[in-house]
Amino acid sequence: MDAIDPMDPMDPIDQMGQMDQMRLMDPGPIDPAAIDPAKVDTAKVDTAKVDSATVDSAKVDRAHTGAAKIDPAKIDTAKIDAAKPAGGEGGDGGGLHIAMVAPPWYDIPPRGYGGIESMTADLARGLTLRGHRVTLIGAGEGVDLRTYEEPPSERIGEAIPEMVHAAQAARFLDDIEADVIHDHSLAGPLGARGRGVPTIVTCHGEVTGEFGRFYRSLATTVSLVAISWAQRALASDLNWIGRVHNAVDVSTFPYRDRKDDWVLWLGRFNPDKGAHLAIEAARAAGRRILLAGKRTERAEQAYFDTHVEPLLGPDVEYLGEVGAELKRELLSKAHCLIFPLQWEEPFGMIMIEAMACGTPVVALRRGSVPEIVVDGVTGFVRDSLQELPAAIEEAAGLDFAAVRAHAVRRFDVAMMARGYERIYRRAISRAQACEPQHLLPLAR
Questions:
Q1: I need a surface site. Which of 73, 133, 225, 266 has the fewest CB within 10 A?
Q2: Fold (CATH) for 41-74+253-410
Q3: Is 82 helix (H, G, I), strand (E, B) or coil?
Q4: Ramachandran category for residue 86: left, alpha or beta (phi over 0 → left; psi -120 to 50 → alpha)
């Protein structure tokens, strides 16, 4: 039987016929005994020490973290795959010109919240390292062509900014001689019909209900990329061209092999993210919990006021919405990240960010969690809330170097760039051959 490349964006069925897609999520768990911590980290760490007695973002001071012996020269994540020539995955062997459209809501990269924007920035940089040219369209700072001088962040969720952004992006795209268009926005794909180059759309959110109806209506005018097998399984009839997991630049996340005794919840305050359930689990485990996240939208504030604020106390502290630097400090120091999802989330960026810091993830078995967390190696995947407190305690026994190594191996930006390069070349080949963009069956 031929070997399967788990990073190949093609469905497993396209490589070797029917097989269990879950086998392809990872080539196998890491043997912690085989991991040399000195060869895992990518940078020396001198992060802030969070006072575990009274944690406040203002009380962050510099301290030795236990990572000083790690030699950053031992592993360069940029060389994992990015050094391969751009033509190494097929096609004509030359670099591509990719026109990439980001959502309009935040700078690229974002200063605080903004998972899609962070992923877009990392992908553009990763593709450039592989010899491609990327023209980035978005709002605010960090883009080549601006649809808004300042991102309309305070209007997130409104239709008009999304429509203005899509219309302006379409005008820019008319003047760009690109080989492929990669759209991360919601309304942007509506302009794909009639284009002379293929349009790739990454589905960053829901693909069922009205979102599924939207993507079905686009039909073959775009080719869709799933960010997890779990997401794709929810709507297997859509015009998928492949699956590529999200990723981060692991080298920007500090590794720390000595963890503090508190647990961390970080995300958007929404019932689906389960912040109130994280508090209950941490209390049942007898540990303090720190909460950090976004609550700028009306529904988020209402949830926080009703379900989270009444639970705050000496053992539960809310730090506010944190920026990139403090987020990394918190993730590197936490005993574990707790992730009690209440919906089938297609991908949780915060999980791979935690693992990049060598911090275990304790999560419920929902959505993409089983694809991201290797149970018993990089964290624990549990079926019920009642099982979380024990898993929180067990996290201390995991090998933090193995957690970090898994992130380097599976979720570094170089791997994501490689996957999307294959997607682009496949879409271009189909367009050049005038082949219909047929629906790929979902592997069972």
A1: 73
A2: Rossmann fold (3.40.50)
A3: coil
A4: alpha
